[in-house]
Automatic annotation (TrEMBL):
Residues annotated as domain PspA-associated: 1-92
Source species, domain of life: Bacteria
Protein name, entry field: PspA-associated domain-containing protein
InterPro entries according to UniProt: PspA-assoc_dom (IPR054437)
Amino acid sequence: MIVRIMGEGQVTLAESRLAELDKLDEELLAEMENGDGPGFRATLKALLAKVRELGEPLPDDSLEPSDLILPSPDATLEEVQDLLSDDGLIPGAS
């Protein structure tokens, strides 16, 4: 699957790796629900770092349709809420 991190680019990520992102996605949802700004910021950065670690970057000149779009590391809590589905940022990871 192709994952875009807004403002950074795209990576190819095996769907089998989504389960590894689920715990961070659940933490992010809980922090957003609790209004925990510092926790939200730390977990968002950890989630994006994990995507970068598990994924393979696509060339900068490649533009593939994205299966999943994640916010930039400096996105606000409100911006991330707009991207959420009922499953969090990573739908179907559970």
